[in-house]
# Entry
Amino acid sequence: MASYSASLTDFCICRADYWKSQPRKFCQYCKCWIADNKPSIEFHERGKNHKENVAAKISEKSIQKAKQEERMSKEFAAMEEAALKAYQEDLKRMEREATATSSSETPAKKPQKKAAKASGKGQTANRRAGLG
# Structure
């Protein structure tokens, strides 16, 4: 038994004084952890599974981008259509107002101008006379 305990003490002397974990890196495409050193990373990135996952992620992003662009173009078309409709309504309203004011202003403006001139003449005459 003495030889067994001696070999156990020799084993304890040879190992490190403290335990240090190896840094790990997470692959966002494969959802797995790999050792954070250059050979392990390169080996993982050259692998078939990793390459397929990267290609799938790229195609997924391009599909999402295409869908987003299509959605935005539909929204812009709807905005443009609403703006054109509002513009047409504004033009119609302006035409109605222009025709309504031109037909009502024509007879009403002439007497008002004469009345204003007559009242203006009366005021200056009153001022001259010292009444106003």
